[in-house]
Design goal:
Homotetramer. By secondary structure, this protein is an alpha+beta fold. The chain is built from four helices and seven strands. It has a five-stranded mixed beta barrel. The radius of gyration is 21 Å and the shape is globular. The protein starts with a strand and ends with a strand.
């Protein structure tokens, strides 16, 4: 089974660093991720909060360079945690175990994708580069008709993408900053969402 999560957002609290009996460092914090969507022609913002955990040398690096409000890209796996609260009630939540991370923004940006203590350039491993190479190889092995079709198709996609970028630029300038202090503690009673009441309208992704 494939379990991979990639998130870009801001930390909602400082790293809580500790060491387990084996001597391995464990760093815990929360992350806020913003999403923009369209409901019946109205543009809205939604913020998702999720706990993340670093291990080993990566936890120590995160504790040294990251703090509340830091912007970071993480890649990891989704984990389901269960426990009992002080009242004996069974509780659960999803969290992310960080496998790789890249510090973003300001002087914190070291330009590296940190994995197991190494810092290779994440840009060299980008999905866009791999996709470009695959398409180039495919086009070279195809006949003239396929090449012409791909060129026309790419032109249409690029034109659509550029128009989409132009339409979204004015809105991007007015996007509010994420309120990282709105992080909800998991031991609080969850509030009822719009989905529970069945009033949520159909969402149209950008």
């Amino acid at each position: 089974m494939f379990n991979k999560v990639v998130l870009v957002g801001n930390l909602t609290r400082d790293i809580e660093l500790r060491y387990i009996q084996s001597g391995t460092a464990v760093g815990s914090t929360g992350m806020a991720v913003n999403r923009k969507f369209n409901v019946n022609g109205e543009r809205r913002d939604e913020t998702c909060f999720i706990d993340i955990t670093f291990f080993g040398r990566q936890a120590e690096v995160a504790n040294q360079y990251l703090n509340k409000g830091s912007k970071v890209l993480i890649e990891g796996r989704l984990k389901f945690d269960t426990w009992q609260d002080q009242n004996g009630q069974n509780r659960s939540k999803h969290s992310v175990v960080v496998e790789n991370m890249e510090m973003l923004g300001g002087q914190q940006n070291q330009g590296g994708f940190i994995k197991d203590g190494n810092e290779p350039n994440y840009a060299n491993n980008g999905y866009s580069t791999n996709m470009y190479n695959q398409n180039r190889e495919y086009n070279q092995n195809s006949g003239g008709f396929n090449r012409e079709f791909n060129q026309n198709n790419n032109y249409s996609q690029n034109r659509s993408y550029n128009q989409k970028q132009m339409d979204s630029e004015p809105y991007q300038e007015k996007v509010p900053e994420i309120d990282i202090d709105a992080d909800i503690k998991y031991d609080n009673k969850p509030t009822k969402s719009n989905f529970d009441s069945g009033t949520e309208n159909e969402e149209i992704p950008f």
